[in-house]
Amino acid sequence: MLLNELLCISKVPPGTKHIDMDLATLPPTTAMAILLYNRWAIRTIVQSSFPVKQPKPGPPQLSVMNQMQQEKELTENILKVLKEQASDSILVLEAALKLNKDLYVHTMRTLDLLAMEPGVVNGETESSTVGLKIKTEEMQCQVCYDLGAAYFQQGSTNPAVYENAREKFFRTKELIAEIGSLSLHCTIDEKRLAGYCQACGVLVPSSDSASQQLTPYSQVHICLRSGNYQEVTKIFAEDNLTFSLPVQFRQSVLRELFQKAQQGNEALDEICFKVCACNTVRDILEGRAIGVQFNQLFLRPNKEKIDFLLEVCSRSINLEKASDSLKGNMAAFLKNVCLGLEDLQYVFMISSHELFITLLKDEERKLLVDQMRKRSPRVNLCIKPVTSFYDIPASASVNIGQLEHQLILSVDPWRIRQILIELHGMTSERQFWTVSNKWEIPSVYSGVILGIKDNLTRDLVYILMAKGLHCSTVKDFTHAKQLFAACLELVTEFSPKLRQVMLNEMLLLDIHTHEAGTGQSGERPPSDLISRVRGYLEMRLPDIPLRQVIAEECVAFMLNWRENEYLTLQVPAFLLQSNPYVKLGQLLAATCKELPGPKESRRTAKDLWEVVVQICSVSSQHKRGNDGRISLIKQRESTLGIMYRSELLSFIKKLREPLVLTIILSLFVKLHNVREDIVNDITAEHISIWPSSIPNLQSVDFEAVAITVKELVRYSLSINPNNHSWLIIQADIYFATNQYSAALHYYLQAGAVCSDFFNKAVPPDVYTDQVIKRMIKCCSLLNCHTQVAILCQFLREIDYKTAFKSLQEQNSHDAMDSYYDYIWDVTILEYLTYLHHKRGETDKRQIAIKAIGQTELNASNPEEVLQLAAQRRKKKFLQAMAKLYF
């Protein structure tokens, strides 16, 4: 109210926006009144954003509560108005910074004169000689500060504005330096201003390298944002000399790193220890106790941790300038660390360090040695510091532990052999193949390998194979090959059975190597590899332990590289009986081979159908319950087929050949469609080659079939996301399960991939009438009725009935009349014109009339022109739909 009165007295026209007034042309007192009002508005908005501690309520009194509520509502209403005008207030204050003249503010004398002789004073105030003079620099200093606070408050939602805040605050500092801190009319909270400047320096680091060094805060913040955590430890270590960073800030950085480490970033574990070590050294230098966090992180010390701790201690104290108390604190800390260590090697690392020798006197070192002796009387500790920890002769248990650690880490077969020889020379009681629980070999091999009588040979074979299998799993094929080759060389000397096992594993490794390397670019495998795969499939060696996955991979390999001739004609008969994967591979290869032929010749397709139906069938058994009733129990995995359904699915997911995947997909889709209660069939390529019925429908687990179809489509699209027939299957699945938006997405994607994003016509075998009708139904159920009418034109015979019915719907969720440009059928456009006329919708009727009036839709045009017009509208409509649903 006070400021509004000041505006009125200062001749600010009521109802005029301050932003529309030119401050430079206004009388000085008028301009000053406008500035005061807008500065107050900005300060009020900023102040309202700060958290306020609510006073404790006293005994509830209705009259007081009503008064408080009224005051609260009044304040909120004022704030709402001010926030709406905030952008205008900021522009007014920005304009004020361009003024280069002094301003005047009313005093009691000028107000009294106004009350007595308003006419005279008005003229007098406009002459800029009345009132209290405010220098330009003082005005700009306060305005810059207020603008900086406003921009800083906006930065929480728009980080780019922090740059403006930084500029204003630093300008405020410059102006304070110019006018001096003793100015009568410019009072700025300089501590608060320093805080703002510091925060801006962190949030908006300057490109000027000198300004970045203003405070370590900004350096730490930049390092945390960029992930340069090693630099954080360096800054903290340097700060241990200056004590410039508050302890609370250092602890908050450590907490932030701990949270990130607990969220799964294991690489931060080491950084957490380093930062904690820096903070701990700072604490002991200032006489505080060691925190729990350091003790937890130092529970398992190692050479790297102790090296870093000693480095931080050395960098945190200047021995020439440090006080006796600082030196005493550091010495006590190092001594306590020694007493807390159990491994004497680590004790010697600390006691032989230059800092330790400098800080502790001879008597203190002797006392420490005596304490260590009492704790471990069998160890003869030397008082003289040892020059290097590596010179200390280690005990046998330490050596064994170190060698076992190297054994776990090494992937060099000759180094592994050397370590095992050393270990067996030190003890004959241990089984070193059990050192790591990560070393696993298939159970079919473990009996043969663990049956080796010589302990060293047994450990070596087991570890070489386990490490080789692990390297193969993580796709480190180079090391896997070296390990397998060494193992093969070793077992060839004494076990033909294990020799064949290693040859089989090396074959699988070579298959994986080719598939992950040159095979991905379509390069055929070398003939030698194909011959070895055939040799494995035809192998008839008795008592050789075989892994099922190798047979699986070999058959998948032959199918992926189209070795159909071998699988159909050259596979030995005994293999078809003994190996289910070979049987399945033969049927798939034969079906692919016969596919172009007449339907009568597709005998193998029927055989493949029967095999898959049997795999997907469930065996039923009767069980009498406690109440005497007989219930039917279905087994989820059939034992009637040549393999389990899960095994079939695992095998299919090793295939990449498009034709084979298409055949399997079409088979499962047909099997899915056979069930009696199916409402919406799924379409697929080559679906006609399969039988159309099953004698015993109840035996098939259709729920499992539906799950398998979904998994197979998902896998196939991961192999080739641009196969239009697979995309149509995925769309049909979503359509059948009432997920219409997702179905439209995949129908549109299928059209897009085979038409260069609809720049060419979509082939009619992709957008069949059935697909278009399903798209129409999707749009209808999504209440996009104008899209329905447009899609009705895509059918071979335009469905006017559906189109007209959809256009009659008034509750449409699509763009309605903006789609009229995509309609090329004049009959539908004429119906739209009639419909809008009937409803009195003049604007929409005009849009429809304009669409009819396009010359390219004239019925007298040649057929080619009409077709071109239709094609152009199809393209634009489908592209618009794609942008909507992709």
TrEMBL record:
* Family from the record: Belongs to the Integrator subunit 8 family.
Q: Which GO terms describe its biological process?
A: snRNA 3'-end processing
PANTHER family reported for this sequence: INTEGRATOR COMPLEX SUBUNIT 8 (PTHR13350:SF1)
Q: What is this protein called?
A: Integrator complex subunit 8 isoform X5
Coiled coil residues, start to end = none
Q: Under the cellular component aspect of Gene Ontology, which terms does the record hold?
A: chromosome; integrator complex
Keyword Nucleus assigned = yes
The record places domain INTS8 TPR repeats at 397-885
